[in-house]
Amino acid sequence: xxxxxxxxxxxxxxxxxxxxxxxxxxxxxxxxxxxxxxxxxxxxxxxxxxxxxxxxxxxxxxxxxxxxxxxxxxxxxxxxxxxxxxxxxxxxxxxxxxxxxxxxxxxxxxxxxxxxxxxxxxxxxxxxxxxxxxxxxxxxxxxxxxxxxxxxxxxxxxxxxxxxxxxxxxxxxxxxxxxxxxxxxxxxxxxxxxxxxxxxxxxxxxxxxxxxxxxxxxxxxxxxxxxxxxxxxxxxxxxxxxxxxxxxxxxxxxxxxxxxxxxxxxxxxxxxxxxxxxxxxxxxxxxxxxxxxxxxxxxxxxxxxxxxxxxxxxxxxxxxxxxxxxxxxxxxxxxxxxxxxxxxxxxxx
Length: 349
Prior knowledge:
The protein has helices at 14-21, 30-35, 58-68, 83-89, 98-105, 110-130, 140-153, 227-246, 253-262, 296-299; strands at residues 8-11, 38-43, 47-51, 75-77, 95-96, 158-167, 199-208, 211-212, 215-220, 277-279, 286-290, 309-312, 315-318, 322-325, 328-332, 337-339.
């Protein structure tokens, strides 16, 4: 707040409230979350949780604005849940709290890293129940049901990514039409019956006390991967290893993207509408991003530091032969990086 010249920060976003105060909203049940909603008001010396169940209505917006007015100084807000709140705060000309939050979240504390590790472990343990269910004749939504049941048994406090079990074609032409002409991903689950030989890109993310996880693997339905598919998997590992070799304090987001390209014969090993790596914390995808369309001019200015957490998600794709995709969560340490993901690449290993 000192660095950004802000005296009072108002946080309405649930993840931001959790980050600043530790208060976790029951976001998995929207009706309850709205009725019990709280807003955080942060000063340089104090933090306050203000009940705001009527924030979507004019009366509630005015009441919250009145509470905020009790705190003098330069004001910044993360988001406006309603037009009423924007209008009620207009006279104070609040600034955007986004840059301040991004700077604060860029480096995680040891306790925050442990929460991410715990979230990741819950996600992975749930997969121990899901993977044995994978067989010809089962619906993708059945996998979702098993996943949801297990994550909450294990202590998850929310689900942040609608589970994806996407059957990918061997060529882009065999998949759904896209305006860009690229492989569509992700597509939502819709009760598709899985067939023998299907190759699935999966992607899930759960929440543990306000901190996110990210899980991705490639699975085969009822068959073992062939030699070409295993070759794609090994190239994926080479790309991850190349990225991990450069991920350390002082490296930049651009360094990570360059390493990924070099390990893939100079070609970007990621889907054009995504990136090779993204941050994770209170959001399933947050700063920093590596391999965006912003290029070297921007990404070379994003410097990694101990405590920065990244999700590597290269995609190895050979049109006509399909591909391999997975995700690995790593944290930057004082002299390199540490893998937080601990799940096998079955059936490719």
